[in-house]
Each structure stands twice: as C-alpha cells, then as structure tokens.
Amino acid sequence: MRHQYEGTVEHVMLGMQIKDAGRVFYTQPPSPNSIKAELEIFDYEVEDDGETEKKGNYAPKKVDIPPNAPSIKSLMYKGGNAFDKYTRKFRLEKIIEETEDAKAEDFEASGLLCILKACTSLEELHIQCTNFNTFISPVLLLKMQTAAPHLARTLKVLSIRGPLQLEPDALAWISDFKSLERLDISDAFSAEFYQDNYDYDCDHKTMSRPYDDQMMECIRSLTHLKRLDLGCGDGESQRHLFNYMLGRPREIELW
User: What is d(CA 50, CA 84) in angstroms, rounded to the nearest whole number?
Assistant: First the structure.
C-alpha cells in the first residue's frame, strides 16, 4: 500500500512539473502527462487498391498544410510505411552532389519535407515512425536541410527516438542545426554498425565504437546544446549501448 501511495505521489508531482515547464513532452508509451506539439502530422500510407499492401507499394498520403504553418513552433511527425519506403532509398548512401537538393519528387514522396518547408518558425521537431528498422541517413537529413534551410536558425529541439535508428554518419549532419539546445536521440542507436575488431593486446574499454567520432563532432559543433538524451534507461540496455555502439562518457573526450 505504501509503495502504491508513493508511486501515485511521484506520478502526480511529475505531472505538475511537466505542466509547469510548459514544453512539449512525449512518453513511450503515451501517458496522461504527455503535452502534445502544436501540430501533429500522422503521415501514414494510403492504399490504392486491395493489392497495394500485398505488393508493398505504399502511396504517400498528401499532407495538408495548415494556414498557420508559418507561425507553428512545435511539430510531431509520425510516419508509417510510406515514410519508411522513402528513407530506404537513401540507406547507407554516400553524400554526392546530385542528392544535395530536395527535388520535386522528394516533396511528392515525403510529407515530412512538405511540412518542414512550410513551418518557417519551427523550434521543436519530434520525429517518430510506426515501423521498426527505419533508419535516418545523412542523405535524408540533407534533404530536410535543403527543403527547410530556416531550420538551421530556428530549430532548438530535435527528437529522433527509437524505434527509429540513426546511421552513425547522420550525427554529423545533425550538427548543421546550429541553434539546437536539446537533442533527444533516445534508443536510436543500432548495433548493426559494430565491427568486432577486438584486439586482445589492448584495453577493450578504449576501443572506438561506431558512433564515437560522429558523436564528438556533433557535440563540438552544437555550441548552444544544453541537454543530450541517449535513452537506454535500464542496466541491460546501457550495457548493450556502451559495449557495441557508443563509448561510455568517461571514455569519450568531450563528455
């Protein structure tokens, strides 16, 4: 009974703190304490016919741009199969000159680019996806930046949480959002990029993980950054993160 009472009090106090903060707040799974963004976009696929889903040809849903888009400060974008299909085009693709600009076909395929272009005062961007194993690549971030160059000046909060996953090189491109004060990449790391080059003659704790160099570059560049969220709250998740993806804070020069 006492533990139940203490849990209730803690929950109520957390709710009061969140409300007093007055900032967008999302939990996974959603809770009554969540504070929604000013605009929420659910960019799921639309099916052309009964065979569409079976064939995997997901048609992107046209995103309705609200009249007040230029004044919107916070956005939650939730993508589905169409978003996943668009991101897969750039999986592990290197940055080349031909891919730098967001072209007409990009806006047709991605509701995210359309809404980002319209929200010229955006300060908070939360990106989620209903699919697992959807990767955020450097090319995708570059498309976002060329579609909405104002984000380099206006964006203060960027949240890309799991099950979305970041390619290591994508971290370097996040640093182009120069005004970021908070970066939330909770649980957005993938062990897929880990290479087992264990050297038994050296200290395993000092070996570089796939995200180390890119994380340092990102932190160095974000001079206004005040908070960095990595997620992996439980012990087992932290062990997995620090063993295979990212060096522990004491092992990374800037942490």
Answer: 20
Query: How far is residue 64 from each of residues 40, 69, 79, 137, 151, measured CA to CA in Å?
Result: 11, 10, 14, 25, 20
> What is the token pair recorded at 156?
């203060």
Q: How confident is the model at residue 95 (pLDDT cuts 50, 70, 90)?
A: low
C-alpha–C-alpha distance, residues 244 and 54, integer Å: 36
- Segments in 120-231 forming alpha helices (H): 138-147, 151-154, 170-174, 212-221
Residue 198 to residue 187: CA distance in whole angstroms: 24
Question: How many Cα atoms within 13 Å fall on the side-chain side of residue 204?
Answer: 7
* Beta-carbon contacts of residue 208 (< 8 Å; ≥ 6 apart): 247
Rounded to 5 degrees, what are φ and ψ at 52? -60, -50
DSSP 120: T
Kindly state the tokens that stand for 124.
């908070």
Q: Using an 8 Å Cβ cutoff, are 210 and 216 in contact?
A: no
Is the separation of the CB atoms in 224 and 178 below 8 Å? yes
HSE, CB side, 13 Å, CA atoms: give it for residue 56: 4
Cβ 71 vs Cβ 54: under 8 Å: no
The rounded distance, in Å, linking the Cα atoms of 178 and 154 is 9
Three-state DSSP state, 237:
helix
Q: Which of the pair, 155 or 131, is modelled with greater confidence?
A: 155
Which amino acid would we find at residue 225? Answer: L
What three-state secondary structure class fits 184?
strand
Q: Which residue has the higher pLDDT, 209 or 1?
A: 209
Nearest to 174 by CA among 206, 135, 138, 216: 138
